[in-house]
Design a protein that fits this description.
alpha+beta, 7 strands, 7-stranded mixed beta sheet, 7 helices
Length: about 180
């Protein structure tokens, strides 16, 4: 089983490469629905910035190979966004979640528990409220939806934009 570690800025190239493998563009939509996909691929600098700004980004390594990752945006970063539709979608009673921006596993490493290990590392980080957005239309990301629901996430709201319909999924950590 791969080792899960905190991502560092030096890992940005690996994140960029995995995102390119998982990008919907030029993939057959039905296969992408089943295997999961990304709509957005950040540049190396985008990933470097994300890692720098959030201590809750993790990497899965098998030896020297990076086989998966999760990136996030902190509640503090969401709260600092200008008020308006984008920020307000995430706010509830003045509280903001830890937002999963992307979670992905290299296709040949899928179905081995790596996505689960990445999500578990994120949940164990202690954030009381997590949120993830998943595209519902025009191409429904079935794999990502099933993954979240299987892990106790619930659909918080669905939001239609000009070109897409997004599902906002949330996870509330229970304190013991």
């Amino acid at each position: 089983m791969p080792v899960i570690t905190a991502a560092t800025e030096q890992d940005a190239l690996h994140l960029h490469q995995i995102a390119k493998w998982l990008q919907l563009q030029s993939r057959e939509p039905e296969a992408a629905k089943r295997s999961g996909f990304f709509l957005y691929v950040g540049s190396e600098e985008d990933y470097r910035k994300t890692i720098r700004e959030s201590p809750f980004c993790f990497l899965a390594r098998e030896g020297e190979q990076c086989v998966g990752f999760v990136t996030t945006m902190t509640p503090q970063a969401l709260a600092q966004m200008p008020a308006g539709a984008n920020r307000d979608l995430f706010e509830r009673n003045g509280e903001f979640p830890l937002l999963i921006e992307q979670i992905g596993v290299v296709p040949e490493w899928q179905n081995r528990g790596i996505g689960q290990a990445l999500l578990d590392a994120l949940i164990q980080s202690g954030a009381p409220w997590l949120m993830a957005t998943v595209v519902h239309a025009p191409v429904r990301n079935e794999r990502s939806i099933r993954f979240l629901l299987r892990n106790g996430w619930t659909l918080y709201r669905e939001v239609a934009t000009r070109t897409r319909v997004w599902g906002f999924y949330e996870f509330r950590r229970t304190l013991k």
